[in-house]
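TA notes, week 10

Several of you asked for a full example with nothing omitted. So below is the full record: structure tokens for the whole chain, then the designed sequence directly under it. When grading your own attempts, check the secondary structure regions first.
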């Protein structure tokens, strides 16, 4: 059913004649007749009692008129909402983020942004870095934040939100704590706690170890967890040692519940990225948050 034909029907009822509608819409009278007939055909009913000289609606015509008025009103409201979404900073900001950005970076960023724009709401969906990239690539989200270097895909844009170090930590009473520095061969003797294989943290660790001619498979991974907070909790409980984000570990280090272990010759740096499609027609809210995040991209380890 063509919504324009509903508008023509509404005008016909308002003006009372086909000729008046044709003049008002600047179309021919046969065109008006065609639209009404097509509307009747689409609905499978008669809208106008053609046995009367004066325009008279059938019972079905009255029902369709109510419907047409409702559609017109709803359509107008929809247009107003879409215009506001396009030009005003309102609505819900949906973000896809890996654990470090979701747990430690975005809450601060969103807090500042939402203080400036009190009419918005926000939602962060936490996933691993690989899934974040896929969610942007396939259009499930407009904005993503991850710890893996974004792939080179046409139209995909990114900027660095924050820099970080990956450090080795243990419980405060672990045997390695007493040593000033340890060798990679030393840590291979102890139980490890790790993130999942699709985690950007884990991928950064494995790449750095491989560059030092140390096979990551030598690590005795006894426990795999899906987020940094869980890894830190397991380390504090004495379940093993772990490579973790320095940003994520700051609080636990300050409290003394975990200790940093220096590994000789090993320094692992990483970056967190904001990724999006630069040529997308985004809402004003998305564009404003992108600009805000780029200006605030000064988080560091």
């Amino acid at each position: 059913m063509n919504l324009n034909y509903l508008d023509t029907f509404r005008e016909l009822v308002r003006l009372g004649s086909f000729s008046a509608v044709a003049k008002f819409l600047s179309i021919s009278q046969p065109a008006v007749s065609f639209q009404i007939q097509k509307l009747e055909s689409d609905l499978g009913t008669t809208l106008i009692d053609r046995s009367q000289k004066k325009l008279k609606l059938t019972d079905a015509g009255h029902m369709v008129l109510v419907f047409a008025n409702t559609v017109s009103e709803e359509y107008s409201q929809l247009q107003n909402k879409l215009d506001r979404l396009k030009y005003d900073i309102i609505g819900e900001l949906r973000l896809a983020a890996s654990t470090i950005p979701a747990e430690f970076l975005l809450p601060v960023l969103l807090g500042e942004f939402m203080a400036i724009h009190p009419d918005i709401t926000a939602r962060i969906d936490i996933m691993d870095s690989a899934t974040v990239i896929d969610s942007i690539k396939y259009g499930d989200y407009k904005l993503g934040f991850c710890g893996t270097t974004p792939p080179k895909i046409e139209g995909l844009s990114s900027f660095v939100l924050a820099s970080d170090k990956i450090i080795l930590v243990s419980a405060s009473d672990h045997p390695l704590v007493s040593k000033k520095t340890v060798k990679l061969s030393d840590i291979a003797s102890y139980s490890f706690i790790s993130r999942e294989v699709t985690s950007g943290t884990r991928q950064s660790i494995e790449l750095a170890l491989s560059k030092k001619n140390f096979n990551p498979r030598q690590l005795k991974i006894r426990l795999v967890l899906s987020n940094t907070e869980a890894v830190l909790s397991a380390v504090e409980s004495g379940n093993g040692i772990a490579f973790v984000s320095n940003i994520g570990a700051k609080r636990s280090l300050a409290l003394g519940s975990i200790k940093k272990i220096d590994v000789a010759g090993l320094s692992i740096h990483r970056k967190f990225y904001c990724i999006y499609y630069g040529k997308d027609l985004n809402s004003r809210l998305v564009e404003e948050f992108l600009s805000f995040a780029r200006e605030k991209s000064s988080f560091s380890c």
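The beta strands are 91-97, 120-126, 143-146, 156-171, 191-195, 220-225, 242-245, 258-261, 268-277. Use that as a sanity check on your answer.
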